[in-house]
Amino acid sequence: MLKKLSAAALVVAAGFAFSAPPAAAAGCPVKDTIKFSGLDWASNHFHVSVASYMVEKGWGCKTESIPTTTAPSLNALAKGDLHISMEIWYANNREIWDKMKATGKVMEPGGVSITGAVQGFYVPRYMIEGDKKRGIKAAAPDLKSVADLAKHAKLFEDPEEPAKGRFYNCKIGWNCERVNTKKLQAYGLDKTFTNFRPGTGEALAAAIASAYKRGKPVVAYYWGPTWVLGKYDMVMLKEPEYNEEIWKKLDKAKSGKGMKATAYPTIKVIIGMNKKFAEAAGPITTMLSKYHLDGDSVAKALVFMKENKDKTGAKAAADFLRKNQTIWTKWVPADIAAKIKASL
Question: What is the dihedral of CA 71, 81, 79, 25, to 10 degrees?
Answer without folding.
Answer: -140
